[in-house]
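note to self: dont lose this again. the chain is below, predicted strucutre after it. 379 aa total, dont forget to put it in the shared folder this time
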Amino acid sequence: MDIDRIFAERRVVVACGAGGVGKTTSAAAIACRAAQTGRRTAVLTIDPARRLAASLGIGRFTGEAQEVAVPPGEEGRPGRLDVLMLDTRSTYDRMVQRYATTSGQAEAILKNPFYRHFSGAVGGSHEFTAMERLHELIEANRYDLIVLDTPPTIHALDFLDAPQRLIDAFDESIFRWIIRPYLMAGKVGVQVLSFGSAYIFKTLAKFAGGEMMEHLSEFLQLFQGMFEGFRERARAVQTLLHDPSTRFFIVATPQANALQEAVLFHRELARMDLPFGGFLLNRALVPLEKPLGKEALTSRLAALPEAHFALSAAFIDRLADAEAKHQAAARSHRRAIDAFLGPIEPPPPLYVVPLFDNDIADVRGLVAFAALLRQSAVR
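---
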């Protein structure tokens, strides 16, 4: 399957996988290749380790788009590659400004101490704002393709659930018991709330302190009329993730633990009915089609112009042993791939990228990685 054609037909590509499997490198290489084909491309990273900057040769970047110079591809069409880092607080602030009914309401919320804590510390905030930022970029229509570099698998699952969890949050019992009754009560006070809601408020006040509860009360009052806007936005993000123009690629290596996590993630994608693009396996050892052996190695080395020295039998033995170990390790990789991915039906697209001699730390290396990716389709 032509990887260029796959990316040409998509607006969003999501790179998922365990930590340490080359996911960030894969995301950056995909984006570089798309830019080389003339597409306006952006890479958005929500990876807390922030490794993307190093791969793209950028010392430091923020939530604002920064352009990366990418050499043109063989097509010769001018493209563009921008990189962005997720800024959770700024993304929440823009959502408040979008859904506030007045500028005064937005300003009061942004200054509220509870909001400042909520926007940075509530579980799932990082994941949900990543989805919101993605939606912002799609709406702005500045890019033909957006590539997401997600956190390691366990956090990426939070990332996938974030839109639904936000939708569900406003239907949870704590919301029904506390927030909705409070909003109905308005400024009358806690005494008009239901017995259960008033009790919960008073109990929380004992632990959080009266001042914090005042900030919470002010926050809830200010947020009147905005909860539904947040819910609608979450639904829109969920729709985007399920759209045919989106594809999820699971990045792994041929080791058993990474492949096991990849299979589990694939099951989650299937359970959520999210569009799957394929497995991308990095650092694979490829067996030699025609191993040389001792005699052929000796002949080849003796024929080299630089071979102005005697080749010892021990040196040839070490080379032959290294060749044999490479073949054995390559066969082991192939067996692991077949064992974990073979039973999946229908057979998923599989892209295998061989192990590089050196670490990839710049755009030139990413372009080379992308070239191998284009040649790597196994099925």
